[in-house]
Fold each of these.
Amino acid sequence: MKALIIGAAGFVGGYLIRELSSAGWEVHATCLPNEEIKEECHIHRLDIMKKDEISQILGETVPDVVYHLAAQSSVSVSWKRPQLTAEINVVGTINVLEALREAEKKDTRVLLIGSGEEYGYIREGACPLSETEPLNPGNIYAATKACQGMLGEIYARAYKMDIIMVRAFNHSGPRQSEIFVISDFCKQIAEIEKGIREPVISVGNLSAKRDFTDVRDVVRAYRLLGEKGKSGTVYNIGRGRAVDIRFILDTALSFAKCGIEVRQDPDRMRASDIPLIEPDVSRILADTGWRAEISMEQTIEDTLNFWREKLMAYGLSLGNSN
């Protein structure tokens, strides 16, 4: 199997490269000229806003599966930069789909990576959410991902393309940006332990309930969908059990090596927050046998240890430079 991962310099890309490579796939991956991919694979420079560049790379690589990861993936950033979010997530996706359509490789499978946020304002009693649940996005990021999924369904029907739409719920793990909640909490704790932050952790809304899956489980799901998923189908990817953000905080604090005060920060509250998002993941289990295996406690502990090691390495590098 040969894969092309579009937008592989981000958090998930590195894990997906390793997952596919360890399974014996030949992996090609793209990133912007100013980005870096550290994992071993065939690297290509690409801006998805330039369709000709996509077409050229498709012609050079001739992949069996294309994983479209390139996205502006932060809900908070989408509120601040809605136009950028729409350009990357919608126009960029059209460029990818058009390049694939024009390549006339009907047997190339495409995975469009969407989000559980697409379900948005959920009707009472709808959770766990099946893939047939109507979408009602509650934020700008979610709206662009819902549009991406609809475009995928249109291209699959109209042009008989092999496209799978994925709705990945929250995933986390070591090396994730601190703009996401688990990594944010873990970084703050590591900084407090290091003595470079006062012993106070700043938090937003702790009552929202979300489904969290380890990124290492998520990329395994992506590989299995590339191998076994059904064309034209939408798949939820998640643990299948939501927890409130307070559980994430309490678990992270249980691993802390010192006492920490919790303080709510109004700046961390979102303009619109969905109370509960929880998926039904029976479809991916039935079609691929996938289910989440790594515990949330393990994900949180591994993420905290990542930040501890990063701060230690940073301190050593400063010491060496003096």
Amino acid sequence: MSNTPSAPAPAPVASEHIGLKARNVSFSWEDTPLHWLPGDPFAGHTMNVLHLLLPAGERWFVHVYKQVLPYITDERLRTDVIGFIGQEAMHAAAHDDVLPHLKRLGLDPTPYTAQVDWLFEKLLGDRTLPPGRAREWWLKERVATIAAIEHYTAFLGNWILNADELDRRGADPVMLDLLRWHGAEEVEHRAVAFELFMHIDGSYRRRARTWATAFTALVFLWQRGARFFMENDPHLPHAKASFARFFQAGQQGVLPSTGAMLKSIPSYLSRSYHPSQEGSTAQAEAYLATSPGANGGAR
């Protein structure tokens, strides 16, 4: 597999690079209510979609990256990818642990998670392809898709670290810690997926095409997940999810704003884009140093 990019790689911000490690985390869910964001179950359920999407998605990341490790010729990048794999595996496990708690509270996520599992395991999974160009093409496609998805996980990570309105509204501290621990690590490793894509391929055409696919899939899955939670919440008969509610929640600061999400599109599609240009590693590290779940305080 060629690892010569088709265009010069955008320059990273050197000061934003940091060695990655997987942290053992512990979160206790006994006291977390179903409506963990007081007064706004829609915003809470919209964020709960993370628990449905991420376990399968991040296990898929790990599976694909283990396949691409033999093609990495840059030792620092290889070390970063191994650290990324460890962090993503821990993210999947931590969000998986929330699902039995939701079920105990009367909201069974199994029908939706089964669909997500099918997407990553079948539609985006391994294919029976002959060795050579066809197999390499499919691996490059998936690596590029992960880079596009990671652009948005880093965007969400940066947002949750700065979402002070959630604190003001009395969000459940354990759920908020889980989201911020995860968000901080997404900011911490935000450049790895993009640098890996640039290392093994770097085609701008592939970057743009897989961004369009990933963005469309994320919007589709997220709105389906929010609708699933609202329609199956035992305390909210006849509740509905809508874009109007999402837009309003973004204006109020309890969800990412629609404007900020739209601005993230030309950012990723810019030929000079590099993930290290957005977010702050120092802010992420500061949160990780004090996170109760990442430092044994929630056991």
